[in-house]
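step 3/5: co-fold with FE2/S2 (inorganic) cluster
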Amino acid sequence: MLTTMTVTTPGRGPLRRLGGHVRRVADAVATPLLPQDYLDLIAPLHGSVLRGRIESVHPETRDAVTLVIRPGRGWVEHRPGQYIRIGVDVDGVRLWRAYSLTSPPATGATVSITVKAIADGVVSSHLVRRARPGMIVGLDPPTGDFTLPLRRPAKLLFITAGSGITPVMGMLRSHLDELDDVIHVHAAPRREDVIFGGELRALARAGRLELIEHHDDTDGLLSTERLSALVPDLREREAWACGPAGLLATLESFYDTAGIADRLHTERFRPTILATGAGGSVTFTRQGTTVQGPGDVPLLSVGEGAGVLMPSGCRMGICFGCVVPLAEGTVRDLRSGALTHAAPGDNVQIQTCISAAAGPCRIDL
Ligand SMILES: Cc1cc2nc3c(=O)[nH]c(=O)nc-3n(C[C@H](O)[C@H](O)[C@H](O)COP(=O)(O)OP(=O)(O)OC[C@H]3O[C@@H](n4cnc5c(N)ncnc54)[C@H](O)[C@@H]3O)c2cc1C
Ligand code: FES
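step 4/5: write tokens
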């Protein structure tokens, strides 16, 4: 006969009650902060949110540095070619930007990103000029699909320009041993501007890849005619490209016309703005601020320019970190021209990094 038995762990109920009591006392003592908040302050890498500590800073070129970061609790291993979002405090405001990981996944407890300062760039300039060992930054787990397939292509072509080298460097440092035939075309204004130039040239000297450097200042802008001349078997190669929007658009059109669009994989650092129109007044309802929103400027920049604390992430339409409710009005998707309309009470969600005002609109922020 089967006997049903209830097993009770001695003291479990009272212990749980006691634990809850201790936690309530600790919470009361810590008020208005919670004990977890103190832990976040004392041990930021073991707190409730993912953070990283900059361990070292390495200059790469006159305007680019590599930051070696120790991620804290919650980090997950990345795939080479992926990027992270990093949150940095600039003048008391936390700003988030995306940066590709340049270290291989198995380097242990640290990862690296390489940042190139752009003119007037708030976060990139801050990191290149001010980042120091010990600095704590916000982190998001790695993401992105600009990665190599598990079945490695027999013949591979990397096409990069400027800081677009970063995700590819992550792939080269991780996968080069598994690749038989790699041509890497890299464009930079001058030889001394080539990020990771020394390492790439050493790999080429060792016969690990064929490196073709294109220096815009002397060679002119990299065209598809020149690319085809430099890489005669280009059509046989699976290609990964990352660089300025103009170069990527030219490559996409070239591969498309050649009927081999599926051979080209691209990574963009900024959205391609294709559709603009008349703007309108933009009201941030909770802030009580109204400003003029030009038809070709993302609402994210409009809000930031007006001093509104805007949520953000990649700033190019891929991470959805900037989604906010459109309380009323019409906005235009700058990539496609598609209009989104909200009547009062609709609270339609929009991505502010790729949407511009298309008439008066009210944002619930
Ligand atoms: C998936 C992804 C991966 C990235 N990886 C890297 C990386 O590994 N290394 C790296 O240096 N950057 C990388 N970026 C770009 C990075 O996220 C920032 O956009 C860049 O550092 C500029 O930020 P900022 O705050 O300095 O400029 P902002 O203050 O935001 O912008 C200042 C001005 O520069 C323009 N601008 C913004 N971004 C760029 C850009 N990329 N190129 C030229 N002009 C720009 C803006 O339109 C504005 O006019 C990546 C972006 C994405 C989406
Ligand atoms: S900030 Fe990433 S989608 Fe807008």
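step 5/5: annotate
The pocket of FE2/S2 (inorganic) cluster (ligand 2) is lined by residues 312-315, 317-322, 351, 353 (CB under 6 Å).
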